[in-house]
Amino acid sequence: MIRAQAALETRMLLRHGEQLLLTVVIPTLLLMLFSAVDIVDTGGGERVDFLAPGILALAVLSTAFTGQAISTGFERRYGVLKRLGVSPLPRWGLMAAKTCSVLVIELLQVLLLTAVALMLGWSPQGNPLAVALLLLLGTAAFSGLGLLLAGTVRAEATLAAANLIFILLLVGGGVIVPLEKFGALQDALQLLPIAALSDGLRDVLQHGAGVPWGGVAVLAAWAVAGLAAAARFFKWE
Asked: How far is CA 126 from CA 5, 13, 110, 119, 218, in A?
């Protein structure tokens, strides 16, 4: 049942034009634009080496948080979740199916963005297992926050809030603009999950570091807090 629901969720996401714009088109265009044009000072070296890890983090944010929050919020509004909640598929199974769907979309995003970055001259380094750990923790953190938002406020408010948060984290989360540019706010911004994910990926893929345990700890804390809050406060109708 979970496999069938996950396949359905994945097909729905792939057929949704607005979701594809958010999860695929925007990250790809940002990677190509900021790699080709010297708009932001990335601190020397090849721009794509700095940008590619941040764009991978943005892809996780767009799918696990923004896209999932919006789709789940409107499913809740239209009574889809209520009907699924009384079906043979258990509620935890529905959440597992949604998580599997998010992971499938993210895998496609990573493959696409990696291919584009390599064509732009990207030279990734580091341990792929460390990258996988960061991506999984980032997915858990953003999924918990997305489900919390979708399950506690109205669909229209979820739509507005999810898009606003996406833009704010894109600008101030170390995705494109280095956190050092924010001066005194840098220490506070480093505690954001998007900053922990983008900087952690950058440490591994750009600088060849080992597991960035500081970023792992921040992401794990957000994942535990977000998923626990979503489980406690999520309303199915």
From this structure: 35, 31, 16, 19, 20
